[in-house]
Amino acid sequence: MGQEGGGASGRGRCVGRPAGAPKEDGPSGGQFEYLGTVAAGMADSTEVRELVYLVTGGCGFLGEHVVRMLLQREPRLLELRVFDLHLGAWLEELKTGPVQVTAIQGDVTQAHEVAAAVAGAHVVIHTAGLVDVFGRASPETIYEVNVQGTKNVIEACVQTGTRFLVYTSSMEVVGPNIKGHHFYRGNEDTPYEAVHRHPYPCSKAQAERLVLEANGRKVHGGLPLVTCALRPTGIYGEGHQIMRDFYHQGLRLGGRLFRTIPASVEHGRVYVGNVAWMHVLVARELQQRAALMGGQVYFCYDQSPYKSYEDFNMEFLGPCGLRLVETRPLVPYWLLMLLAALNALLQWLLRPLLLYAPLLNPYTLAVANTAFTVNTDKAQRHFGYEPLFSWEDSRTRTIRWVQAMEGSAR
Ligand SMILES: NC(=O)c1ccc[n+]([C@@H]2O[C@H](COP(=O)([O-])OP(=O)(O)OC[C@H]3O[C@@H](n4cnc5c(N)ncnc54)[C@H](O)[C@@H]3O)[C@@H](O)[C@H]2O)c1
Ligand SMILES: C[C@@H](CO)CCC[C@@H](C)[C@H]1CC[C@H]2[C@@H]3[C@H](O)C=C4C[C@@H](O)CC[C@]4(C)[C@H]3CC[C@]12C
C-alpha cells in the first residue's frame, strides 16, 4: 500500500518507533486571550523587545498563523524573520508594527541560505516542509526538503550559536502505520508500531529524530542546543488547501460529496490557531524549562471533536451548502482500492505530460480508513498549554473562511 519510499534516497522502508520522551511531569500555566488580527495591535506589554525569531516556512498554511500569532503573543519580539521559498505579499502589511519583520526568500535545502537566516536568531521555529501525500514531488525531493533541510537548520543553529529550535513534526511520524493499526486516544507514550513506507511520513520521522537527537549539542559559544518537536494531527482552519479542494469538489458535484469513509473511523483534527499558539508558547517556555522540555515531543491538541475525516469536514462545508450523501460509503472498499490504484497508475503514466494528483490514492485511502485520535495533556503539564480557541470559535472561524471562498467561487 502506498509508494515505495522512505530512507536516505526515498527507497526501502523506514521502521522503528519514533524517539519518544521520558515521562516527566511539570507545573501547569495560565490561559491567554487571542486578539484576532495583526491590525488589532500588539499585545500590551512592558517587556523589553530583545528577541529575534526565525520561522521557516513562514508563508505556509501553518507558518502564516505562527507568524501572526508571534506578532500578537510574543511581547519580547524585536525582529521576526520569515524564511520561505515562496514569500507572500501579505507580509508587507506586517511591516507597520513595532516588530521588525524581515522577509527572507530562501531554500532550506541550501545550507548557506539557512545559515545566513539563522545567524543572530535566538529561536528558530522550523515549519518548512513538503507536505505531499499526493505524489506531486518525488521521494528524493521530499527527503531533500524535509530531512536535509532539517539537517541544515540544525547545523545552522550549532554553527551560529542559536540555542532554541522548535520543529513542526506530525502525527504521521507515529501513524497510521502500513498495517492499518488504529491509534485510539493515544498519547506521546502509547506503544505503537510506527512502520512506514511512504516518503512523507518517513521523512518526517527522520527529521524529528534528528531534531531530538540534536538536543544538548554544544552550539557556537559553548552552550547547549535545546530542541523539541510538536506533532499536530490533521490541521484545519483558514487557509487549509485540502478543505478548499473538498469544497470545490462538492461545488462541481452539484453541492454533494459522496461518503467514502465509514463514520466510525475517527480522525483527530486540530485548529490551526491552536497549533500556532502551541508553537509560540513552546518556543517561549523552552527557554525557561530546557531541562524538562528539551528533547521532548508533544502532540498538538484542542477540543475539536473526534469524527471521520469526511464528517469533520462537513462541520464547515455543511453550513456552506454542501451535503454528504449517504450515512455509509456508497462504494465498497475493494472498489475504492481499485480506483485508488488506477489513480496511482494514471499519475505514473501521465507524469511525462502533466501532473495528475487526485485526493484519492492508495496512501490517502489507507490513512483515511485508519482511526487516529490522540488524548493527552502533556503540553499542558509541561508548559501550561491550553487551547486559545474553543471548538465553537475554531468552527466559526473556519466556516467564515469557507464562506469567504464561496463568495469568490460564485
Ligand atoms: N497541514 C497539516 O495537516 C499538518 C499536520 C501535521 C504537521 N504538519 C507540518 O506542518 C508544517 C507546515 O505544513 P503546512 O500544512 O503549513 O504546509 P504548507 O505547504 O502550507 O507550508 C509549507 C511551507 O514551507 C515552504 N517550503 C517548502 N519547501 C521549502 C524549501 N525547500 N525551503 C523553504 N521553504 C520551503 C512552502 O513554501 C510553504 O510555505 C510541515 O512541516 C508539515 O509537515 C502539517
Ligand atoms: C478516500 C479519499 C478521498 O475521499 C480520502 C480523502 C481524505 C485524505 C485526502 C485525507 C485523510 C487523512 C488526511 C491526512 C491526515 O489528516 C494527516 C496528515 C498529516 C500531516 O502531516 C500532513 C497531511 C496529512 C497526511 C493528511 C493528508 C490528507 C488525508 C490523507
From TrEMBL:
Residues 1-10 have a biased composition (Gly residues). Residues 1-28 are annotated as: Disordered. It is an enzyme of class 1 (oxidoreductase). Keywords: Endoplasmic reticulum, Lipid metabolism, Membrane, NAD, Oxidoreductase, Steroidogenesis, Transmembrane, Transmembrane helix. Its EC number is 1.1.1.181. It catalyses: 7alpha,25-dihydroxycholesterol + NAD(+) = 7alpha,25-dihydroxy-4-cholesten-3-one + NADH + H(+); 7alpha-hydroxycholesterol + NAD(+) = 7alpha-hydroxycholest-4-en-3-one + NADH + H(+); (24S)-7alpha-dihydroxycholesterol + NAD(+) = (24S)-7alpha,24-dihydroxycholest-4-en-3-one + NADH + H(+); (25R)-cholest-5-en-3beta,7alpha,26-triol + NAD(+) = (25R)-7alpha,26-dihydroxycholest-4-en-3-one + NADH + H(+). One of its GO terms (cellular component) is endoplasmic reticulum membrane. Pathway: Lipid metabolism; steroid biosynthesis; Steroid biosynthesis. Residues 54-326 form the 3-beta hydroxysteroid dehydrogenase/isomerase domain. It is a multi-pass membrane protein. InterPro entries: 3Beta_OHSteriod_DH/Estase (IPR002225), NAD(P)-bd_dom_sf (IPR036291), NAD(P)_dehydrat-like (IPR050425). It is found in: Endoplasmic reticulum membrane. One of its GO terms (molecular function) is cholest-5-ene-3-beta,7-alpha-diol 3-beta-dehydrogenase activity. GO terms for biological process: steroid biosynthetic process. The keyword Endoplasmic reticulum applies. PANTHER family: 3 BETA-HYDROXYSTEROID DEHYDROGENASE TYPE 7, NAD DEPENDENT EPIMERASE/DEHYDRATASE. Belongs to the 3-beta-HSD family. The 3-beta-HSD enzymatic system plays a crucial role in the biosynthesis of all classes of hormonal steroids. HSD VII is active against four 7-alpha-hydroxylated sterols. Does not metabolize several different C(19/21) steroids as substrates. Involved in bile acid synthesis. Plays a key role in cell positioning and movement in lymphoid tissues by mediating degradation of 7-alpha,25-dihydroxycholesterol (7-alpha,25-OHC): 7-alpha,25-OHC acts as a ligand for the G protein-coupled receptor GPR183/EBI2, a chemotactic receptor for a number of lymphoid cells. This is 3 beta-hydroxysteroid dehydrogenase type 7. It comes from Vulpes vulpes (Red fox). The gene is HSD3B7.
